[in-house]
Amino acid sequence: MLKGERGTRVREALIEAVAVLEAHLYLTGELTEELVSEIQALYSLATGPQSDAEFSRWLPPLREKIEAIRRHYDCRLSERAIRLMANKIASDKPGYAGVEKRVLAKWFLNYARRFPRWPNIPLHARVIFNTDRSRPSAESVLVLEAELFRDVELTWDRAVEIMGDGLAFVEREASRQRDLQAWLRLTVMSIFQCVEAYLNGLAYGCFHGFHDRLSSKEHWLLTEWDPKDNRMRFVPFERKAKSYPTLCAKYYLGTSVDLSTDPDVLNLIGDGKKLRDSVAHLSPLMDERSEHSKVARMAGMGPEAVEPVLRSAVAYIVKVEQWLGRDPTLSVPWLRALV
After folding, report:
1. pTM
2. Which DSSP symbol is given to 229?
3. Checking phi first, is residue 95 left (phi over 0); if not, alpha (psi -120 to 50) or beta?
């Protein structure tokens, strides 16, 4: 074996080890600014004019670091696969990329080392990575319904600010009246977007967790798919509100949950949905044929109509979490009572 060939081979092994270490640090969120600098320094050394002996001396400590981080997070992907995944997530363009918990949980069996709340995070949540490898990688965890609850909080807070003047609705200036109703309408829409996102998250977790045990009917219910026509068939909100928690309780706990008489469920799918529909499905032409005026409901919307819906939405999510044997303070820590 020629010295040049040996040197090239050792050099390549060293460069490969640095790349593998970088990929592991990146995917586990440990690629801090300090480590980014260290990785760059290692790349510089590996491509420098050093001797074979020096290259060989640096390689074992790198291999030890790689093995240590693999054990720490219980990594189940090969080193080649880890590099491929890191390269797929990272990008030359600055920004962010999300990877579902369902996927990361297969790559790393002990990802709770990165996020201690990991066992209580829903399966559909996404870990957000900075695509720029020159900056720290895993930034946060994105839970879709939690983000939508921020919409509820912000819109309701704006409505409360206006109501804080202590005036009756008719006593306010016209512009303030319209502002209040705008924030109330947005609150109602945000409430239902949040609750439906929460329900869809339940469906996602149940579908992927018990895919092989679901009946065909349950399968299509959770995926909102019509196999006969091979197209999406959206499940009505009121059916989701009753069926999804029931189905989850069946598979997660082996128990039965009956939501048909729960007051918060009835309020959401009853008066709450009518309020939502008066905004989402407003039609003057259809209003003429209806005995219940959506236009009047939308135009006359006040806090006395919105508050019970907001209260029921929060209570409903808390109840579902409890029905599924979870601690809401851990599973939905983003949720809070607003009224």
Report:
1. 0.89
2. T
3. left
